[in-house]
Design brief:
Shape: flat
Helix content: 55-70%
Largest sheet: 6 strands, antiparallel
Structural class: alpha+beta
Distance between the termini: 97 Å
CATH class of the domain at 347-518: Alpha Beta
Number of strands: 15
Number of helices: 26
């Protein structure tokens, strides 16, 4: 029934209502705009001043930090007097380290370098750069022409070496040594990209814009992307505030993106006021006219209500309220209809599910054709042909239950049923699916294809359904397919065959679709042969024969080739673990922990939750490898303790040999380096490298305190090829550099006792 009266009333009143509200909104906007425009300009100026002050403060902070470091660090002055080549290496390294520290403290700093005028060399964070190789020659020549300039330069390009990437920077230089030295300069480069990013983070691009101009009027920074000078000039016309920085000479221009809106609204504000008043008066007249015109059909409706009011006394509604009377009558009628349709639908679903259960169980099939025609789970035209049953199982169902609520599980199952039926229709099949268990759904398909092609059609359907479910629902499915049946009475056996096929998921489920015809018929009599193989495997494992891994691989290959049931596979593997426990459990308490009840319970749970034979193989290979390492270590440790003590004595006598390493020990004692490290760690609870470093550092401390040898000679005496590696290791272990240690005459207490 069309809502003609409702649409007539809506179309009558809604246009004038919309126009009236629009006018009022615009009037309100004009009033608010006039009040807020001045406040907007004021707020924009405050924001611009804050950004300018932040930029100036950042540049001043960089300048002060660098100058303070140069003034207080004596190495800078020493380096400028002596020269980069004649200065001590420690002094050069100290200055380079200072430069790197300054750069790392502030993300705006691109680079800092020291230029020495006499030798025409630059010292950067990469080291000493000769004049011929230095890429910043043009700027240094400009500095030499204006040595007294104290401000920041304009934006320029910079790269340290000629092969380096060019970057945009602004620079400041100071004569060195401070404050008015003549030996050279300290140059500070600020990265313009980092400075622009800091400014951009303080600007609300959606509401405002900012342009920064240099002394020549060129754009240094713009929050908007302008492709031409014309567009840039257009943006400057919208500027609300201009502020010039005394530090950089930059001009900060800012405004709001909708700045022209204020001008436009101001021009038409009075026009909108007049239109608003006229619209309000016209709306009043229009509403009066439309109300009078549309009241006539309502009056006719009221007369008809009064004529039937006496026949509706059973409704608990006052007789004077005719509209409420009609509303209650319609509400009761709609509710009764809805309840009836809902009960019919629920009864239909229950009846269909019961019919499905009866068919797959082979019960009450006397009137199956009549029930099928009444409930219509399948079209009538496909009944009476050939049928096939499949069973769809949700894998990792415990995870499925943990991740979704009961309501979400029901929703996903309902969606899965509909999707599979839709895919079946696209493949030319007519499917009927019902959930027979919490994690399994049975489906009956009516076939009308040529004989011999049923399996290909079903496999194609199953592959599409599995792929779609994995991609869109995040669930993994396994499908068991029963044999084709010529009547409803044969479907019970077909269903049992499909369900039985799913018991071979591990051995036959590589492609997630298992055909009943692929199942072996001799699984039970193969168990003895597998037990023999397991017994042989346990023997090899106990004898520490490395062939146990390949034999374990063959056990899994044989179980897959014989198509054993999942429960048989798990039982055989559990038997294997129990046999290993009996053979190895008495060797040591540590090894026995691998087979205790708590560990065994966790192990059995992991095995039960594993769905594929490949996952099971990897799980057992990893667990048994760990047990094997423990077993071998326990067996061999008892015979190698004397060798480990001899190895320790050898290290203490030859720690000064720079070639002393795990490979050296393995060659000396005829064992692998990896195994030597393992035995050393097990015996002394300490890594070989840590023990060697402690011996060397103890000797180095003694030489530093008791002799006047150079650091290089001491490094050679304790087994290091150069003083750099020795110094880095000494500082990491002792806490100070070798030179500082010698000056302070400190000898920390070090515990070199190994039990």
């Amino acid at each position: 029934m069309k809502n003609n009266w409702y649409r007539r009333m809506l179309l009558s009143y809604f246009p004038i209502f919309l126009i009236t509200i629009t006018i009022l909104v615009f009037l309100s906007f004009i009033i608010v705009n006039e009040i807020s425009q001045k406040e907007t300009v004021k707020a924009d100026r405050i924001s611009t001043e804050y950004i300018m002050n932040t930029v100036e403060l950042s540049l001043k902070e960089i300048e002060m930090n660098v100058l303070e470091e140069v003034e207080h660090n004596e190495r800078y002055e020493s380096l400028l007097h002596l020269g980069f080549d004649r200065g001590k290496r420690e002094t050069v390294y100290g200055v380079v380290g200072s430069l790197r520290t300054l750069i790392s403290r502030d993300e705006l700093i691109d680079s800092i370098y020291v230029y020495r005028s006499n030798s025409r060399q630059a010292l950067t964070t990469s080291g000493v750069v000769e004049w011929s190789d230095f890429a910043d020659q043009a700027f240094i020549e400009q500095v030499l022409e204006q040595p007294e300039y104290q401000g920041w330069s304009g934006i320029r390009t910079y790269h340290e070496m000629k092969t380096d990437k060019i970057r945009r920077v602004m620079s400041m230089y100071k004569r060195a040594p401070l404050p008015f030295g003549t030996q050279g300069f300290v140059v500070i480069n600020v990265n313009m990209y980092a400075l622009e990013q800091r400014i951009r983070n303080m600007i609300g691009d959606d509401l405002s814009f900012m342009n920064i101009l240099d002394k020549s009027g060129n754009i240094v920074f713009s929050s908007s992307d302008y492709g031409s000078d014309a567009k840039a000039d257009e943006a400057r016309d919208k500027v609300l505030n201009r502020i010039t920085s005394t530090l950089t000479g930059w001009t900060f221009e800012s405004g709001i993106s909708a700045g022209q809106l204020f001008v436009w609204v101001s021009v038409v504000s009075y026009i909108w006021i007049v239109l608003g008043l006229v619209t309000v008066l016209g709306a009043i007249a229009y509403i009066l006219y439309i109300t009078k015109r549309n009241y006539k059909p309502i009056r006719v409706m009221m007369n008809r209500i009064e004529s039937i009011r006496d026949r509706m006394d059973n409704l608990s509604v006052p007789k004077a309220d005719e509209l409420l009377l009609i509303d209650r009558a319609l509400e009761n009628l709609i509710q009764q209809t809805s309840d009836y349709e809902k009960r019919q639908h629920e009864n239909m679903l229950i009846a269909r599910r019961q019919l499905f259960i009866d068919i797959i169980q082979g019960e009450r099939l006397g009137k199956v054709n009549e029930r099928l025609r009444e409930l219509k789970p399948l079209p009538d035209e496909v009944l009476g042909g050939r049928y096939i049953v499949i069973v769809v199982e949700i894998l990792d169902f415990s995870d499925f239950q943990n991740h979704f609520s009961v309501m979400d599980q029901s929703t996903l199952k309902f969606a899965l049923t509909n999707v599979l039926q839709e895919i079946a229709r696209e493949e030319g099949l007519h499917g009927w699916g019902e959930w027979t268990e919490v994690n399994r759904m049975g489906m009956i398909f009516a076939l009308h294809s040529e004989k011999g092609k049923e399996n290909d059609i079903i496999r194609k359907f199953a592959d599409r359904g599995i792929l779609w479910t994995r991609e869109h629902l995040g669930m993994s499915l396994m499908v068991g397919v029963g044999p084709c049946s010529a009547s409803w009475e044969e479907l019970a056996a077909s269903y049992q065959m499909a369900a039985r096929a799913l018991q071979h998921k591990m051995s036959l489920g590589k492609e997630a679709v298992i055909m009943s015809e692929d199942m072996p018929d001799n699984g039970s009599r193969l168990t003895y042969s597998h037990l023999q193989g397991i017994a042989h495997f346990v023997k090899q494992f106990r004898l520490s024969n490395e062939e146990w891994r390949s034999h374990l691989e063959r056990i899994f290959e044989a179980m897959e080739a014989d198509g054993l049931k999942d429960e048989d596979i798990r039982l055989l593997l559990q038997t294997m673990m129990e046999m290993l426990a009996r053979e190895l459990g008495e060797l040591s308490e540590r090894l026995l922990e691998s087979f205790r009840e708590e560990q065994a319970g966790r192990w059995r749970m992991e095995v039960e939750n594993t769905e594929s034979l490949e996952q099971l193989r990897l799980l057992f290979m990893e667990e048994l490898s760990e047990i094997y390492r423990t077993y071998v270590a326990i067996s061999e440790t008892k015979n190698h303790r004397a060798m480990i003590l001899e190895m320790k004595a050898y290290i203490e006598e030859n720690f000064a040999d720079p070639d002393l390493s795990l490979k050296h020990l393995s060659d000396r004692f005829d064992i692998s380096g990896k195994y030597a490290s393992y035995l050393f760690k097990e015996e002394f609870n300490m890594k070989f490298v840590d023990f060697l470093v402690q011996l060397r550092m103890a000797k180095a401390e003694q030489l530093l305190v008791e002799t006047g040898e150079t650091v290089q000679n001491i490094a050679l005496q304790v087994g290091y090829a150069n003083s750099i590696t020795f110094g880095r290791t000494f500082k990491r272990e002792v806490g100070v550099t070798p030179g500082d240690y010698r000056k302070l005459k400190i000898k920390p207490q070090r515990d070199m006792t190994i039990s």
